[in-house]
Design brief:
The complex is a heterodimer of chains A (333) and B (273).
Chain A: H1 3-36, H2 43-58, H3 65-72, H4 85-106, H5 116-138, H6 155-161, H7 178-200, H8 202-212, H9 214-219, H10 224-250, H11 259-270, H12 275-295, H13 297-300, H14 308-319
Helix pairs in contact in A: 1-7, 1-8, 1-10, 1-11, 1-12, 2-4, 2-5, 2-10, 4-10, 7-8, 7-10, 8-10, 11-12, 11-14, 12-14
Chain B: E1 9-10, E2 16-17, E3 20-31, E4 34-45, E5 49-53, H1 60-67, E6 75-80, E7 83-84, H2 90-95, E8 98-100, H3 113-119, H4 129-134, H5 136-156, H6 172-184, E9 190-194, H7 202-219, E10 222-226, H8 230-236, E11 239-244, E12 247-252, H9 254-258, H10 261-268
Parallel strand pairs in B: 5-10, 5-11, 8-9, 9-10
Antiparallel strand pairs in B: 1-2, 3-4, 3-6, 6-7, 11-12
Classes of the chains: A mainly alpha (333), B alpha/beta (273).
Bound molecules: adenosine-5'-triphosphate (ATP) and magnesium ion.
């Protein structure tokens, strides 16, 4: 087997795994946008906030310690206990649900029926506010998050795929990161669970109804407020999962919130309202940017990953503005 | 003149109508400077078909929106089953057994006819997630039950042929029928219809009239409806409220309001003072 094909395949697989993570972040956007027409600029910061909260709970950090110490002249910082990852995750989920409720109760409930641009502005405000709260609660230092997901290359896969080189001396088998593998599996489970939830439960049905038509949803007895809290909670949960994956890989710090920027081209590609669009779009961007970097990067001096996704999405947008799975919009005249 | 007592009355065609289920008491509704409803009172009795008529902009839809909780009046009270009703959200009104359709049709355009109708059953479903996840048997039994009810209503309104069709592909007349199906499947005690026949041809109107009479007859559902077509109103309704510029200008049997001078003037466009 020729080198290019083998390494190209490896790049492809790595791209798929990166793509799953992009899809996950994009999914958070799609959920909220579909149900309420809000483009949630704060989605990335929610992931950061979730990861910081999870870390803080695990290491037993006292929330708002700085504030408390400054006010009361105390010197507290840790409770002195550690909480196992699983329990900490459950507690973080509860925090994210609480956050969803607060956001709905104190912000968006008062903005029902406002222009989309106003709602968007509100989420920008929310993003910076939440970032500030996160720093105040847990401190702005870089944290390493370890919830027990194995890291590093999988030797098992490397050894067991070496034969595919069919005698090629340069090939030692596919190099895949265990963390990426785990992330892929978890993201896949999450997506399936979300689909089952929305298809087969009362709340899921109500969610779809609200996404389709507010007025009709009201008339069949659906409580819009609680559905919106539910949607923000699910988006918060998705943010937590993305935060854990990204945080385990690259540490928990401000740049984690920039994963939202990776989701934008995915949304341009997949459409803002399509769950399958977010998934397929994520995979296309993930694979596309890795393959492009592999094939063209060396010729142009690398760093194509910064812009490739946006250019691809832009080209796509010109030819299919409705996204991958949207129906063609024909203006009525 | 109908011989109305507290317990009800007998209609012209001999049906027995019960006591008051819904009573509007001195309702006033304003939008900024516009007074959509001006101090209006009327009642709806059990088992009757009550029409609300009036020229464009008279405040008919606003009145229906007050009953269904979409609008909250600045003054007046809504009494339901003999008790004043506190300020309510639309979902709470729906949970009290009041279903409605809209003048401008509000369907779930992205769903099939069957899914639209099934969504009308949401209120009848058990909401606890734990039960849905763990006790699969109960959830399934409930699903079957809801499905049966939905199919029954679909048969009743003769829309079997389009069960699986996405609603967005349907012509206007059929959409109106699907919307009625979604309201009916909730098994409402009171059904509110905002211009159920608007934009229909003669044949479609006849079908719709027949369905409305059948609903009232077979399910005993009390119906309040807004309609512009006078012929239809005269045929269908037991009693009629007439509105004009937010005020009530007539209330009685179709024959009574038809011969009411103020009503005739309103429809002929006699100048207001
Ligand atoms: N949400 C609203 N905001 C502002 N004004 C409103 C609103 N709803 C109704 N109105 C006003 O209240 C008045 C009554 O409107 P309404 O829709 O109740 O009339 P209608 O009798 O149903 O008329 P039509 O026969 O045209 O449907 C109108 O002047 C209308 O502009
Ligand atoms: Mg109207």
């Amino acid at each position: 087997m020729p080198d290019a094909l083998l390494f190209g395949t490896e790049v492809f697989l790595n791209g798929l795994m990166a793509g799953v993570l992009y899809a996950l972040v994009a999914l958070g956007f799609v959920l909220i946008y579909k149900a309420s027409g809000i483009f949630n600029y704060a989605q990335g910061v929610m992931a950061l906030f979730a990861a910081m909260t999870l870390h803080g709970i695990m290491v037993g950090q006292v929330p708002f310690a700085h504030l408390i110490n400054a006010t009361f002249g105390t010197h507290i910082h840790h409770f002195g206990w550690e909480i196992p990852a699983l329990l900490a995750i459950v507690l973080t989920v509860i925090v994210m649900i609480l956050l969803a409720w607060l956001v709905q109760r104190y912000v968006f409930r008062h903005l029902v029926g406002q222009e989309p641009i106003i709602l968007f502005m509100a989420t920008i405000g929310l993003a910076y506010f939440l970032e500030g709260v996160a720093d105040l609660m847990w401190g702005s230092d870089i944290k390493t998050l370890d919830v027990g997901i194995p890291q590093g290359g999988s030797f098992w896969i490397e050894e067991n795929t070496q034969w595919m080189g069919m005698g090629n001396e340069n090939f030692y088998g596919f190099f895949l990161d265990k963390l990426d593998l785990v992330a892929t599996v978890i993201a896949a489970i999450l997506v399936v669970a979300l689909v089952l939830f929305s298809q087969y439960t009362k709340q899921g049905r109500a969610m779809r109804a609200v996404a389709d038509d507010h007025q009709a949803a009201l008339s069949v007895g659906i409580r819009l407020n609680s559905i919106w809290v539910l949607v923000w909670s699910v988006a918060g949960f998705v943010a937590l999962v993305a935060g854990i994956m990204w945080g385990s890989k690259s540490g928990v710090q401000f740049s984690l919130s920039l994963i939202a920027l990776k989701a934008l081209p995915v949304l341009m590609l997949g459409g803002f309202t399509s769950i399958p669009g977010a998934i397929v779009g994520g995979l296309i961007i993930g694979v596309g940017e890795k393959l492009f970097e592999f094939a063209v990067g060396p010729l142009v001096g690398g760093a194509t990953e910064n812009w490739f996704a946006y250019v691809l999405a832009l080209i796509f947008l010109v030819f299919r503005p409705q996204g991958l799975f949207g129906e063609k919009i024909i203006e009525r005249v | 003149m109908l011989d109305q007592t507290e317990d009800g009355y007998i209609t012209v065609d001999g049906r027995k109508i019960g006591g008051v289920v819904m009573e509007m008491k001195n309702i006033t509704l304003r939008f900024g400077g516009v007074v959509a409803i001006k101090d209006i009172s009327f009642d709806i009795r059990e088992g009757e078909i009550r029409a609300i008529i009036g020229p464009n902009g008279a405040g008919k839809s606003s009145m229906l929106n007050v009953i269904s909780g979409f609008y909250n009046p600045q003054e007046g009270e809504v009494w339901y089953h003999g008790k004043p009703r506190p300020r309510m959200k639309p979902f709470q009104v729906a949970q009290q057994g009041i279903a409605r359709t809209f003048q401008n049709i509000a369907l779930f355009e992205g769903m099939s006819v069957l899914d639209n109708v099934m969504t009308g059953r949401l209120n009848k479903m058990d909401g606890s997630l734990w039960k849905q996840a763990i006790w699969k048997g109960a959830a399934e039994r409930e699903e079957v039950e809801n499905r049966e009810k939905a199919e029954q209503i679909i048969d009743f309104l003769e829309i079997q042929a389009i069960r699986k069709t996405p609603v967005s592909r349907l012509p206007y007349g059929l959409k109106k029928r699907v919307e009625l199906a979604r309201a009916l499947v909730a098994e409402p005690k009171l059904l509110l219809l905002d211009e159920p026949m608007a934009g229909m041809n003669v044949e479609e109107k006849e079908d719709m009239s027949r369905f409305i009479l059948d609903v009232n007859d077979e399910f005993g559902t009390t119906i309040a409806l807004i309609e512009h077509d006078m012929g239809v109103v005269m045929d269908l309704s037991d009693r009629v409220v007439v509105m004009d510029y937010g005020k009530k200008i007539g209330d009685g049997t179709p024959d009574e309001v038809r011969n009411n001078q103020e009503v005739i003037d309103a429809y002929l466009g006699v100048a207001h003072d």
